[in-house]
């Protein structure tokens, strides 16, 4: 089996990119879309993020064999309720959220008679909204599919094939493990970035204008992540609390060790930690998961 | 006055970039260079990082009217001692280190009869060594000059003009304030990045290979900074201890508040912090201090 009609609920960065990527990579497949915000729907029509953008969520899913919910975690239950009246009985329900256990549970509660196969494309930028999406967002990025126990293997295979068609590499794992992995590779980095950017902007001894001017020393890298969508990230931390707190506490333990090394002028410990971390960067670049050019390929302005 | 002969001691990323930038922007100015490592000297000759690369530090500074020490903070005293025998009496001594109070003190102790005007170009990439430099590294970046009390205004003006010639914007401030500003915008971000990359690579429940694969969720941004030169950064933390510990403790206080917000499911506090930090990013981009393209302009691999 393969999907012929994909309904996209939520037309921001990820939803919009799915629509554009389907048109580019799966020209025979129909897309319909819906967003709660009328202004987003209007912009989505202008950018043609889906073949048809509907004003009614139930109408958007009518006839679909795959429905992808691309809304913040906290809006998932309401989105499921809104599409329920129009949902074809055989449609597969999936999503793109950054955490999988809570979403899988919510969708199973709200749509108990439907096949639910959560997924998470590990891709994005710091921009959000209907103008942010682009067709190549998923190229060479991983998409993690977390089929619940008892999922239909043919439906899982069709969802895997769908994401591979958009250029992604797919891995399956259970939802709980996904949430631990992403706590490390995504949630904690965002929490730290948001926090340090907040700290730096509220010092008395260093002005905000100085922080901005001299940000090229490293700080600016953190501000990109800290410009991500606040609603989406609030919901992530509300719904992946246990794994995030566990990883945060490990980080805090390590940071306390570094603090003590600085306090005690223990250069050996610092050098040891600072040397080991280089290897990780090399592996990420070697696996095609980051731009190999210095400074992410940033262009200095013409001077 | 303007400098006619610049001696560059240390031919890594910054020293090499100065040599290349002088050739591009100040074609009448002579450059000589030296590096402690014979392999770096050989590579510097091949890349012509300076007009002449000398095998003896004292010979490298003979005839220079500006000497720029581009070595890690911990190597500063030895580098000053090594050039002392060849130093012309009127030469201005400067450097490019990431902290200014300790360096100014060290250079004044070692070269008590010379004019010392420390400087810090806030520019760099995660790469180091004689292959890493390029002529445009300082374009549109800030260079902070920290003249000691009683510095000759004409010499300070000449050093400012030198950096402006290489494309930099120059600000002067006192060394102590510099060290506080850079603790926020550079030192703490590096410490945090090194630490979280270390934490992530030593978990039991999530493999290193998973951390690498799913790094596009945010983690990979931290690995760039954590790939910076370990010797340089060890020396920064050994010599800017007080300002770093002060800023680190403020960050830890803020992180404890976020931890408590997560524990208590306090979405309002999270949303408030996550919303405010977006403005900082916008200001950095508006001031030309970062690439405005999504994701730093990273190119996804062809898919």
List the helices and strands and how they pair.
Two copies of one chain form a homodimer.
Chain A: E1 5-9, H1 13-25, E2 30-34, H2 38-47, E3 52-53, H3 57-61, E4 66-69, H4 76-83, E5 92-95, H5 101-110, E6 115-116, E7 119-121, E8 142-145, H6 153-165, E9 169-172, H7 175-200, H8 208-213, H9 219-225, H10 230-239, H11 241-263, H12 267-286
Parallel strand pairs in A: 1-2, 1-4, 2-3, 4-5, 5-6, 8-9
Antiparallel strand pairs in A: 7-8
Helix pairs in contact in A: 4-5, 7-9, 7-11
Overall helicity of chain A: 40-55%
The greatest inter-chain interface is formed by:
A-B, 115 and 114 residues
| H-E order of chain A | EHEHEHEHEHEEEHEHHHHHH
Query: And the CATH topology of the largest domain in chain A?
Result: Rossmann fold
State the fourth-level CATH superfamily of the largest domain in chain A.
NAD(P)-binding Rossmann-like Domain
- Which architecture name of the largest domain in chain A does CATH use? 3-Layer(aba) Sandwich
Uncertain segments of chain A of ≥5 residues (pLDDT<50)? none
N- to C-terminal distance of chain A: 56 Å
Strand tally of chain A, please? 9
Which structural category fits the helices and strands of chain A? alpha/beta
Q: Profile the largest sheet of chain A.
A: 6 strands, parallel
Spatial order of strands in the largest sheet of chain A = 3-2-1-4-5-6
Q: State the domain count of chain A.
A: 2
């Amino acid at each position: 089996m393969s999907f012929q009609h994909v309904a996209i609920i939520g037309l921001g960065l990820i939803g919009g990119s799915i629509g554009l990527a389907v048109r580019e990579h799966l020209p025979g497949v129909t897309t319909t879309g819906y967003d709660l915000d009328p202004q987003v729907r209007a912009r989505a029509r202008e950018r043609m993020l889906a073949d048809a953008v509907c004003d009614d969520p139930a109408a958007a899913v009518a006839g679909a064999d795959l429905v992808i919910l691309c809304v913040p975690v906290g809006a998932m239950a309401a989105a499921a309720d809104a599409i329920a009246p129009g949902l074809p009985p055989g449609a597969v329900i999936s999503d793109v959220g950054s955490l999988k256990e809570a979403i899988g549970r919510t969708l199973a509660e709200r749509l108990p008679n439907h096949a639910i196969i959560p997924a998470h494309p590990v891709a994005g930028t710091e921009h959000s909204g209907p103008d942010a999406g682009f067709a190549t967002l998923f190229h060479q990025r991983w998409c993690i599919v977390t089929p619940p126990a008892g999922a239909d293997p043919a439906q899982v295979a069709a969802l895997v094939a769908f994401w591979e068609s958009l250029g992604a590499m797919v891995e399956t794992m259970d939802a709980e493990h996904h949430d631990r992995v992403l706590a490390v590779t995504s949630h904690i980095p965002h929490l730290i970035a948001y926090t340090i950017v907040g700290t730096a902007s509220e010092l008395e001894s260093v002005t905000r204008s100085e922080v901005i001017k001299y940000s090229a020393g490293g700080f600016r890298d953190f501000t990109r992540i800290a410009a991500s969508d606040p609603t989406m990230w609030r919901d992530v931390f509300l719904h992946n609390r246990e794994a995030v707190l566990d990883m945060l506490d490990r980080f805090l333990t390590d940071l306390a060790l570094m603090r003590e090394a600085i306090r005690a002028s223990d250069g050996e410990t610092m050098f040891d930690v600072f040397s080991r971390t280089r290897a990780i960067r090399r592996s990420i670049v070697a696996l095609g998961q980051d731009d190999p050019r210095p400074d992410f390929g940033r262009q200095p302005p013409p001077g």
